[in-house]
């Protein structure tokens, strides 16, 4: 190796780390190879014209790992990202961001299976709560439950509109015993002590029941009371047990890559 070649090699090691593998005629990383980057990360896989491109495995020094497709140094296509906390994302990527369909498993074993946009839950998807077995199935916007959706529990479900991950407006509880309770969720202002300095307004969700009916299709624009008669004690007890739960359903937080 000449002095000039030696200097070029030393400069590449300092800027790009150590590399062992195939190169093209221009001397760029091209084909299959393994690189140890200056920050301690390791990439093993395919290159094209000096960039990670194709199938590869990227090992982060913090213990994270990505296995999947690359396009011009970016995670792009199908791939799985494993985080040190035990969470993982498996699905579609677009220019280093979770986008398209994918499944995220959280450290507490909750899962989200659905659509993503720019790293956030966006579109149609189902969030499953591991500890309770409940799940939310419906629409998401920028990581929040929005528009129509339903919470599915062991013996009943809630169907209606959501805003900022909370039930909002008209909806109904559907019970396995064969009836529904129609009503609406409202945000109510909570009392604040006179000596409290915090001027922010505290609100709470309140379910306003309207009537009980037989099982019907969800048509919020045409809700009218039916003639179904039923002892409401069991139904109202079930509703009361889920109102408090509804305000705590935002889903887990994804780990940044």
* Structure class: mainly beta
Share of helical residues: 10-25%
Topology pattern, helix = H, strand = E: HEEEEEEEEEEEEEEEEH
- The percentage of residues in β strands lies in over 45%
Major β-sheet, in short? 16 strands, antiparallel
Gyration radius, rounded:
26 Å
Can you count the helices?
2
Word description of this protein:
- With 257 residues, the chain is mostly beta strands.
- 11% of the residues lie in helices and 52% in strands.
- The chain is built from 2 helices and 16 strands.
- The chain has helices spanning 3-16, 233-246, and strands spanning 18-23, 29-36, 42-48, 51-59, 65-71, 74-82, 88-94, 97-105, 111-117, 120-128, 135-141, 144-152, 156-163, 166-175, 179-189, 203-213.
- A 16-stranded antiparallel β-sheet has the order 1-2-3-4-5-6-7-8-9-10-11-12-13-14-15-16, covered by helices on one side.
- A hairpin with a 2-residue loop joins β13 (156-163) and β14 (166-175).
- The longest helix is centred in the first third of the chain and has 14 residues, at 3-16.
- It is elongated and about 75 Å long.
- Mean pLDDT is 83; it is low at 1-13, 221-232 and 244-248.
